[in-house]
TrEMBL record:
Taxonomic superkingdom: Bacteria
Organism: Jeotgalibacillus haloalkalitolerans
Gene3D superfamilies (UniProt xref): Ribonuclease Z/Hydroxyacylglutathione hydrolase-like
Taxonomy of the source species: Bacteria, Bacillati, Bacillota, Bacilli, Bacillales
Name this polypeptide is given: MBL fold metallo-hydrolase
Residue span, Metallo-beta-lactamase domain: 19-230
Length: 322
């Protein structure tokens, strides 16, 4: 089989993460994987990069989204003549219906209270929604799920890789090439982010557990190269994944050691884990902290031992060695 032709189009974003990589696949169809953000600069640079490739936005037949975050999925309407492909679980953030945003706000308000955030931090909910300005609204035309073939491109299929976001997918080519979105990034460890459940009475997903499963799944593929959403292509994915999983486990065990000294809330653990940045980056750091707590509960190292007001108190299980 011929190796696929992949062109990387790098687009600036207004976010702390910096540039985002989108990928152009030319086969029987012209497919763009991720779009960059909905900003004037994003549109301008995207148009210029497509021009360099001899294309206009109208020439794109298919847009595939690795996940719904605004740095990756902003320009869905901009490519209105293309079919939009994404995982079903990404769609709620792509359309942002009133009923979903209602569930969204209700969920995070409760979640922050359960994490023990003092009331004056509840403004975080509004801050969290700010990046959504860089995202158009559009429903998905075709849902992609595990092992689906990518239409118009022989050899490519979908690998579900949830964790960083619920609807996260990667594209895998038979020759070992992976377009990985934010599944594996060389220079930063990708954050498993807390998202609302998929129904009012459903439990919330456990993104750290899902993310570790996704990393193991990627390692098992023995990828030759992973083209990420940010930073350099990853040529030693298995090694990097091993290192990421070890570091995550170590961080979780450090969290357990904090709880052995004193049982407490997620917010108090967050302050100890990220003393310098928790105030500025509360959304990310509380998500990361709760991810570690989820992992420790899942591994039976700690338990939710009770409530203090609405806040959950976590306690290390006794009799389990560190
Ligand atoms: Zn990203």
């Amino acid at each position: 089989m011929k190796d696929p032709v992949i062109q990387q189009l790098t687009i600036p974003t207004p976010f702390a993460v910096g540039d985002v990589h989108t990928y152009l696949l030319i086969g029987d169809a012209v497919t763009l994987v991720d779009t960059g953000p909905d900003t004037a600069e994003g549109k301008e640079v995207m148009t210029a990069k497509l021009k360099e490739a001899g294309l206009t936005p109208q020439d794109i037949d298919q847009v595939v989204l690795t996940h719904h975050h605004p740095d990756h999925a902003g320009l869905t309407e901009f490519f209105s003549s293309a079919k939009l492909f994404a995982h079903r679980d990404s769609e709620r953030f792509l359309t942002r219906t009133d009923s979903f945003m209602h569930l969204h706000d209700f969920f995070y308000t409760e979640f922050f209270k359960q994490a023990g955030l003092p009331d004056h931090y509840l403004i975080l909910l509004e801050k969290m929604k700010e990046p959504l300005y860089a995202m158009e609204r559009r429903p998905v035309d075709v849902y992609l799920s595990e092992e689906d073939a990518l239409p118009g491109h022989v050899g490519w299929s979908v690998m579900e890789s949830h964790g960083h976001s619920q609807g996260h997918i990667s594209l895998v080519h038979e020759n070992g090439t992976v377009i990985g979105g934010d599944l594996l990034i060389q220079h930063i460890s990708s954050n498993p982010l807390i998202e609302p459940p998929f129904g009012i009475n459903q439990p919330r997903p456990l993104p750290q557990i899902q993310y570790n499963e996704s990393l193991n799944k990627l390692a098992a593929l023995k990828p030759v190269i992973v083209y990420p959403g940010h930073g350099k292509p990853v040529s030693h994915a298995e090694e990097l994944i091993k290192d990421r999983l070890v570091k995550q486990h170590e961080r979780a065990m450090y969290v357990k050691s904090l709880l052995q000294r004193q049982e407490t809330t997620a917010f108090e653990v967050c302050k100890q884990l990220f003393p310098k940045i928790y105030k500025k980056q509360l959304g990310l750091t509380i998500s990361e902290t709760v991810g570690q707590l989820d992992y420790l509960i899942f591994s039976k190292e700690i338990k939710a031992a009770g409530l203090e007001g609405q806040a959950v108190i976590y306690r290390a299980e006794s009799g389990v060695k560190l």
